[in-house]
Design a protein that fits this description.
By secondary structure, the chain is mostly helical. It has helices spanning 3-34, 43-72, 74-78, 86-108, 110-113, 116-135, 139-145, 152-163, 171-189, 192-202, 206-209, 213-261. The longest helix is centred in the last third of the chain and has 49 residues, at 213-261. The chain is globular, with a radius of gyration of 21 Å. It starts with a helix and ends with a helix. It comes from Salmo salar. InterPro entries: TLC-dom (IPR006634), TLCD (IPR050846).
């Protein structure tokens, strides 16, 4: 194992340990001081709260680094299959540590946060990242997938509002719901044509044929699996957003009606 591979291994292990520490120690300590409502939650809710807090931190860290790479890393933009994967490997190493940490927590606290879709999502991502970290292939596509993390904070915030008892028709909830729907659509759904057109552009090239079958399977099958789940989640988010806005509109009309009667 070369020196850089050892560094990536250290980054992944450090990431795993850091996210475990954030879940077990930092999140409970900070949450009790920032949000008094945390103390009133049931034990299962506290587990999910801490899990979502860590998820948000990971999303912000990795998402911003991902955007930087996408904008300024010329090597992977010019050669999306075999471009210099140095920065992408660092980012994927952090995400790998997080995914393994989260999988461990999901299995250990299955009654609180167990979800088969998240297990499939994490395993599909880890399978694909193995080829990025182990062989340095497909850095552009691996990094592009991480853009999806930008939707995570809004999704988590929706749950925080719900568990703290914020009415669905409240302004913070509506604002977050709208932001969640828009950001989720932009970074997970709207980018699909760009992602798959870039994939199609390298199909049949010499660089493409240098990718082993396992790498192609990880690339194509994982992408399809993740995007099928993204479409399913987008459908749920859109329905939820529509219901909240409809409820808020009816409440507003009812309030105005009562005002006229008076």
């Amino acid at each position: 194992m070369d020196l850089f591979s050892q560094l990536i291994l250290v980054i992944s292990v450090t990431s795993f340990l850091s996210f475990q520490w954030l879940f077990h120690r930092v999140s409970p300590w900070v949450s009790t001081r920032v949000s008094p409502g945390f103390l009133r939650l049931a034990d299962k809710q506290k587990v999910e709260w801490n899990s979502r807090t860590v998820s948000t931190l990971h999303a912000l860290l990795v998402g911003l680094f991902c955007l930087y790479i996408l904008l300024f890393d010329d090597a992977i933009n010019e050669d999306p299959v075999w471009g210099d994967p140095t920065l992408v490997k660092i980012n994927v190493g952090v995400t790998t540590g997080y995914l393994i940490s989260d999988l461990l927590l999901i299995f250990y606290y299955w009654k609180a946060i167990g979800d088969k879709f998240f297990v499939v999502h994490h395993l599909a991502a880890l399978y694909a990242y193995y080829y990025v970290l182990g062989h340095g292939m497909l850095p552009y596509f691996a990094n592009f997938r991480l853009l999806a993390e930008f939707s995570t904070p809004c999704v988590n915030q929706r749950w925080f509002f719900e568990v703290l008892g914020y009415p669905k028709s409240s302004r913070p909830n509506i604002a977050n719901g709208m932001a969640m729907a828009v950001v989720f659509f932009l970074v997970r759904i709207a980018v699909m044509p760009l992602y798959y057109s870039r994939m199609w552009s390298v199909y049949g090239t010499e660089a493409f044929y240098q990718v082993p079958r396992g790498g192609c399977a990880a690339w194509i099958i994982s992408s399809i699996c993740l995007d099928v789940m993204n479409v399913m989640w987008m459908h749920k988010i859109a329905r939820g957003c529509y219901k909240v806005m409809r409820s808020a509109r009816q409440h507003k009309v009812g309030t105005q009606g009562n005002g006229k009667t008076d």
